[in-house]
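Re-run with default settings, no changes from the original entry. Doing this only to confirm the output is reproducible before filing.
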Amino acid sequence: MNLQGLLEPRSIAIAGASADPSKLSGMILGFLSKSGFEGRVYPINPRYQTIADMPCYPSVEALPEPVDLLVCVVPIAAAFDSIEAAARRGVRFCVLMTGGFGEGRSGDEGRARLARLQSLCRETGMHVVGPNTVGMVNFRKRLPLTFADWYGRDTGQRGGVAIVTHSGSVGGLIFSSLQLNRIGVDYWIGLGNEATLETADFIAHFSADPEIHTIICYMEGIRDGRKFIAAAEAARRTGKRIVVLKAGEYPDSVRSTIAHTARHPTDRDVYAGVFRQLGVIQVVSLSELSYVMTLLTSVGDRLGPRVGIISASGGACSVIADHVIQAGLELPELPPVLQQALDRGIPVYGSSSNPVDLSADVVARGEILGHTLLTLREDDSINVWMLFGRPIIDRYYPMLIEFVNATGKAMVVCCGVPLAPDVQAALSEHGIAVLLDPELCLRALARIACRPAEEPVPAPPLPERTADARVLRGRQAGELLARHGLEVSASAAPWLRVEIARDRDFGPVIMANWLPAYRVGTHRVVRALPATGADLLALVDDLGEQLQEWPAEPVDIEEALATVVRAYEQSPGVHGLGVEFGGADGRVVVCEASRREAQAG
């Protein structure tokens, strides 16, 4: 979909414009009149002849031209008159700030309004941002169509980031956090309740924009999961990153998303599995998001899961080492030859194994750090070096810059307290991430490092299911899989549950989890279908992270999953599939019937 008329309009009408700067519509016009926007602006309000030295028109019909974009800030009772008049005149886009379209307590009446709005859009070809949105901003084109106060605090930093959000407040906090961390934003889109335009539309649009490198989404659910998957795959093919903060992760919190945006997302493990499959970076807090963005914009694609720690404090080394493992990252011991070389410059009461404890002597003896960095130049066993401790950073930051410039290695510095502004600026300028909290930094790094490294290979589309398609379980599922070459056993004890089902948000998915009889405390792993061989291997890897010992060879489990998927794909009469796997003489086999079925039979 071409969104240029929305994001770069040549002409804008503001229905409900006000000369009162304390009113929302007055704030919008105030921001816009001071922004330097080069297009034509037409205020609409029958109570004014002029506003801010601009002619004001009594209605959409009275405008001198069909505009590219209508901004609607009128009460719900009058909103449809303006929207319908604009749609009939050929206006293609509307930013609808008015609420009452099914969210909150608007109930059946609100849902009826939404249906009417969507019917009008289908009939006329109009597309709507909103309803119930605080607007949007194209910073590149100096186009602020918002009343949000954070716009007034814009520092002018631009830098290839687009924010797409279901919440004006949360989206504003994201914007302000990025500004504080010197990360530039080019676009800010408040989606509201997604009457027609949704998250996926903007991901697809920004994926084709060569100046955008990262798309940040705050979401409370996905309207069309298949459309989102296609957009995210397009973003990955063009090298764009998608970072998502999602709300509605728990049954109790879903009450809020239903009230706010009328979104009722499906299970959190479904979203987590699909995001992981698509290379989407999912964060769980605004703080994590801020740290992820700092890492991405400073260190970028050099990030990886193998972490090395350097500090002057043995205690800090120990604490941070725990943080590495807790985050799911790797803390590899350095090769013996490298340790021997490091030991020649580190006091005997230090350590070179990883963490590298330089000892407190380094505060007065810079040659200890110099020797360490020189020794580490040729080592490739570590993806990211974390250096902790302000005394080292303050005194020797030029050494760190020289090391990174000479080697291209990824480095993060943390010290728990802010650095001097000139020191932080110098480090950041040379691609060294500067962050306060090492534990939060490592959690953010883990969010990034878990993305698939391979380029996506599209899987063949799934065939349509027949009208009478059935869900097969137990004996029926076993018979189907036997026809596809899997062995069925009546005696094997089950240890893995696999199910293919239609998820409400994403459509067909494959889900797998270890059975409690084999492993207590594990969780379900999910991937969307169609799935490639790489997707299924990653699913098995995720299952394996929950184990200390495999019940069978991972490659055999992956082949069993691939057979389940293949059987489903080749069976249009099968709507869903549930099966349990166990082992027999080292082989992965289908258990003939689940225990529940055996007891029921």
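The first helix runs from residue 4 to 7. The chain has a mean pLDDT of 93.
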